[in-house]
Amino acid sequence: MRALTHRSFAYENGGLPTNERLEFLGDSVLGLVVTDTLYRLHPEVAEGTLAKLRAAVVNSRALAEVGRGLELGTFIRLGKGEEGTGGRDKSSILADTVEAVIGAIYLDQGLDAATDFVHRLFDPLIEESSQLGAGLDWKTSLQELTASVGIGVPEYVVAESGPDHEKTFNAAARVAGEDFGHGSGRSKKEAEQKAAESAWRAIRAKYADQLNPTS
Description:
single chain, 215 residues, mainly alpha, Ribonuclease iii, N-terminal Endonuclease Domain, Chain A, Double Stranded RNA Binding Domain, 3-stranded antiparallel β-sheet, RNA-binding, nuclease
């Protein structure tokens, strides 16, 4: 239960233990497992590139998406104030909680169990990171992809909605006048990255024959 106890809930309920120490521990366990996996998968890759690959997998946006996939927001114990400002879907809270859960599994069941848990959740992201371009982020990768198939440079159209304390950004990734992907997030950057990811997948599928010509 401690892994799901946000500090806002703890403070409103007499100073209960929070999940922050577990988050600290889980961050290290996650980093170790992902680093070890990347090291073994890419024996020819230099340290600097390995660090970028790791950052493409272990970051707040990716962690938050993992948390959403697990529906962790439903189970987090939040204070009333944080609950009222959309805390259950706040990327930073979801990301921290994922790390806390990893830390709790490590403490309760050991490194092997924590490693298995990380692999189940993050192996798709690790595999995906190897397909990203030199910049190792979706916007850079999308730009490289659109250049390789000759359809122009992506642009992003972003709209805001919601009150200031719970603002949502909605982005469209547009190439040659066509919207290939959409994304939403708590920040403009997050929304654009999600839109770029969606567009990257759509364009790879659309131009699969050109990108993977048969011999």
